[in-house]
Write a structure and sequence with these properties.
It is built from 23 helices and no strands. The chain is mostly helical.
Length: 411
């Protein structure tokens, strides 16, 4: 009856809520009991939902078995095999997650076997409809072949190439290479984020001296507009170019896009250094913009290298009395929030106690931009002079000498 269906729907929803509550509180035994009730109740359920009952049981059951104190690998495998038979449409997804679980438990050979069985799976038109899942299955097989190749490579490199045993190792290594290369190359043709697959494929290519192919793969991954914006793609390309001694122009080009995507990336220090050394005015200007942008992020607040880069550039500009407008342009958008963010009296005391070098670099920047009356500069320079540290006396004289710069920068 209609009333029965309504009551059943409410009971089912309530049971799911109990399971969710138990899982959130990490009460895995309690969650398992409720899931058992839920599974039994579903035998009476003839409704059709977007996410079918078997998928709910699969996902919740997997999570519970992964954390349940009495769970064993044998029970987990048994549960997964049942889940494979319950839903043909998600068969490959279940196989893939099963392989992940086996890998997390160090069962690499078993995971490879599971992927091989999934790859050969056939079920009418379902096999063709799940082309993406099949590609993923093959890609992870390729990843495990790469792992085996890497192990054989390390054995060969460690023991050299002496005797028949090493020849068999080398042959086995080449066999793994061929299998890994085919599957890894295939998956990265499809637009997506394939970081680990790209890295492994490039490693294979570089080892066998196919640098041109590796460059094409990385360039395609970084610059193809069909692929989603991915900072790592530009990191991998930059690292490859750097390994192969490419020109500064190529390195700067790779890092420029990375800067646009992630201005707080750790490679921005390298980017700033290259730009700062450039003879081109436009690149030196960009270098100042880059280092200011880095220090906008809390993760860089106490990074001595970043503050040293900024201090060095600000000092050079002040001494040359050229391009003070660069500093002014960067400061205008930060003058309301950088003083409390970087240059408070509290931070001056903290930085002085914890890191003298950091306090020195920050004092130089704050003294030039905010003037000699800045609380941060006054405290640090006073403590430095009091401790009779020579560079703090020189710092104080430098800021006092160039105090008019503060007025020009602050407007």
């Amino acid at each position: 009856s209609h009333e029965h269906k309504l009551n059943f729907g409410k009971s089912k929803e309530m049971c799911l809520n109990f399971i969710q509550d138990a899982m959130l509180q990490k009460q895995w035994k309690r969650a398992a009991e409720f899931l058992t009730f839920y599974a039994e109740a579903l035998e009476k359920d003839f409704s059709r939902e977007y996410m079918g009952p078997s998928e709910i049981i699969w996902r919740i059951g997997t999570e519970i078995l992964c954390h349940h104190s009495d769970s064993s690998m044998k029970e987990f495998n048994s549960f997964i095999e049942q889940m494979k038979t319950l839903g043909v449409k998600r068969y490959l997804k279940v196989c893939l997650e099963h392989s992940f679980h086996l890998l997390c438990n160090g069962l690499i050979h078993e995971a490879y076997q599971s992927l091989s069985l999934a790859e050969s799976w056939r079920f009418g038109e379902q096999r063709a409809l799940q082309d993406k899942e099949i590609k993923l299955i093959q890609a992870y097989k390729g990843l495990l072949d790469y792992y085996s190749w890497s192990k054989q490579k390390n054995i060969l490199l460690e023991h050299g190439q002496d005797g028949l045993e090493d020849l068999s190792v080398e042959q086995e290594m080449h066999s793994y290479f061929r299998k890994a290369a085919v599957n890894l190359k295939e998956i990265i043709k499809t637009p997506g984020v394939w970081d680990i697959f790209v890295k492994c494929y490039v490693d294979l290519l570089e080892f066998y001296g196919d640098d041109e192919e590796a460059r094409q793969v990385l360039s395609e991954y970084a610059y193809n507009s069909k692929f989603p914006a991915n900072p790592n793609a530009h990191v991998y390309l930059y690292q490859f170019l750097k390994r192969h001694g490419e020109s500064k122009k190529s390195l700067i080009s790779a890092l420029k896009i990375l800067h646009d995507l992630v201005p707080s990336h750790e490679l921005m220090i390298d980017f700033n250094t290259m730009l700062h050394k450039s003879k081109k005015r436009k690149k030196r200007r960009l270098g100042l913009e880059v280092i200011f942008a880095v220090l906008d992020y809390v993760g860089w607040k106490e990074n001595v290298k970043a503050w040293s880069c900024l201090a060095r550039q600000v000092k050079q500009i002040v001494i040359s009395e050229k391009h003070l407008d660069w500093i002014k342009q960067e400061w205008n958008s930060r003058k309301d929030w950088w003083p409390p963010f970087h240059f408070s009296l509290y931070l001056a005391k903290k930085n002085w106690q914890e890191n003298e070098s950091l306090s020195y670099e920050k004092a130089l920047v704050s003294g030039i931009i905010l003037g000699k009356d800045c609380k941060y500069f006054r405290y640090v320079s006073h403590q430095g002079c009091k401790a009779k540290v020579k560079r703090f006396r020189i710092l104080k004289k430098f800021v006092n000498k160039h105090s008019p710069v503060h007025l020009r920068v602050s407007g």
